[in-house]
C-alpha cells in the first residue's frame, strides 16, 4: 500500500548557529486516478490511504451515488494480470450497482490537493442538488461542545504530528461531542471525502445529528460536500469564503468559522447552536 510519510534530508538553519543536515518527515502526495466501469473519471492529488473512502465520498459530493448499495465494487488496478505492471495503488476502478446511471463523461476533471473544484465550467455547475434536505435537519449543538472539537481533532492528527503538512476532517456526534471518524490528507477536500466515504460504507448517510469539523478554512466545496452528505453543521478553525457562506445559507446548513479557544463566528443558521447560560461564546 502507498506510503503516508517519507524521510528526506534537509539543511536546518537557525540564526546564530551553524547549519546542519538532518532527516525530515514529509507527508506523501501522489496522484489517484478514479475510474468508473474502467473509464477514466477524474484524477486527484492525495495522501495514499483510505482510497476507497476517498472515491466514494467524492462520488457522493458529485451526486453520482447517495447510498451504500450504489457502490458495488472498488479495485486498485495495475497489478499482476494487467500487463505485468507492478500495482502502484494509484488507480482505482469503481463499479456502480445496476441501475445507477453512469456520470456524464463531460464532467470529468482534474483536481489538485488544494482545490476540489478545479476545472468546473461555472459555479452553477457545482450547485448539485443533494439527495438529503439539510435545511429540515433539527440537529442542535451546545456551544460548550463546539469549543472542544478543534482540540479533539488536533489531538488525533497522528500524521500531522510527524509532518505538520496535512489537513484533517473529523465527524462528531452533535449531542455528545464524540469523535466518530477522523481522516487526514494533503487536500482538505480529500479529507472530507474520506470521512463521507467512510460514512457511506457504514450505511450512515444521511449524516443527521453530526458536526463536521475541519482543520483549515471553510471553502465552497466543503460546504457542498457537507450538504451532499446530509451534514447539518460545518465548523472550521479558520475563515469561510463569501461563496461558502452564500451556499450554506441557500441550503440551510449551519456554517461556523474561527472556532478557536472559547469563541466562534456563526455565519448561517445560528438557531442550531444552543448557548448555555454564562458561556462566553458570541454568535452574532
UniProtKB/TrEMBL annotation:
InterPro entries: Cytidine_deaminase-like, FdhD
Residue positions of the active site: 115
NADP is among the record's keywords: no
Organism superkingdom: Bacteria
Keyword Cytoplasm set for record: yes
Keywords: Cytoplasm, Molybdenum cofactor biosynthesis
Main location: cytoplasm
Localization annotation: Cytoplasm
Cited SUPFAM superfamilies: Cytidine deaminase-like
Functional note: Required for formate dehydrogenase (FDH) activity. Acts as a sulfur carrier protein that transfers sulfur from IscS to the molybdenum cofactor prior to its insertion into FDH.
Family, per entry: Belongs to the FdhD family.
Stated name of the protein: Sulfur carrier protein FdhD
Upper classification of the organism: Bacteria, Bacillati, Actinomycetota, Actinomycetes, Micrococcales
